[in-house]
Write a structure and sequence with these properties.
Blueprint lengths: L4 E8 L1 H18 L5 H10 L10 H10 L6 E8 H18 L5 H25 L9
Antiparallel strand pairs: 1-2
Helix pairs in contact: 1-5, 2-4, 4-5
Amino acid sequence: MAVDHQQIELNVSEFLFRLTTESLRVRSNEVLRPQTVDELVEHLLTSNEATTSQSQVAVIRDHLATIPSIGDVKLPVAFTSETASCLAKAKRSLSLRLEKPVSDAEAISVLMFEYIAAKKAISLLQKLGVISDGAPH
């Protein structure tokens, strides 16, 4: 059975592009194989907590103010129907929490920010010996 894909091209800021490449690096190292932007976005959107941001509203607002979403860098992303549905759900959830409309790029930016923040927190806890390197993430 063929999976339908929706291709979009986001015009992102240099800062969001850098967050994307850092997220790709971390995810590729996590799964021990190179990841594409499509695979990263699908993972972030279909993971258990993806549709409801875990960060406080003030942190999300600060992130979006610090890392602008719109810019001149072209970032093509292909979504399956399931991933597109998850993105719509994530956008609705963020829009309700922020009390303003959220773009595709903003929703993806928040998910990448939270992904990197969680990985950095796990790394710190491992360095402190609070959790072992073999603990599930």
